[in-house]
Amino acid sequence: MTPATTDVNANVKRHREERRKQRAATQPAAPATAAPQPAGETQPRDVAGTGKGDRWATFNTFVDAVLAQTSEAEVRVWLVLYRDVKPGGLARVGMTDIARRAGLTRRGVVKAINGLKRRRLIEVTARGSINGTPNAYRLLNPGA
User: Quick one: CA dihedral 78, 133, 88, 23, positive or negative?
Assistant: First the structure.
């Protein structure tokens, strides 16, 4: 190898190591464990943050137990949100983006989200703002 190639390789390795450290420093902290629920009360489990197996179990439960009772618009919106759930358990996406990706109008998305909230399939954890910050949604386990 020439000295120039060695310098480039060293720079690439150093850059990758710096990026790895930055990502590790910005990883969200592990969520605190929830307080135990009183007997007889159940709380829906969230979908994300517990591994791929739980995501598939959630998807399968949605298809097997919920799909037949939901409208087409609700299914489309749920799938867009499901696709966008991050390891922290939230999907942050604007209604206009959901509408574009689901092939719906913005009003159709609002109705579908209200239907999903009514069925306890999602919850809105943070409201968006006029300056373009999207809502944050948490998908709830359909079988809970």
Answer: positive
How far apart are alpha carbons 3 and 81 in whole angstroms?
A: 50
Compare 128 and 26 and report the one with higher pLDDT: 128
CATH code for the domain in which residue 94 is found: 1.10.10.10
| Domain-located, residue 129 | yes
Beta strands in 26-65 (DSSP E): none
**Position 87 confidence tier, pLDDT thresholds 50, 70, 90:** confident
Q: For residue 124, give its domain range.
A: 52-139
pLDDT tens digits, one per residue of 63-74: 888 888 899 999
Residues 6+ apart with CB under 8 A from 141: 44, 45, 46, 47, 58, 61
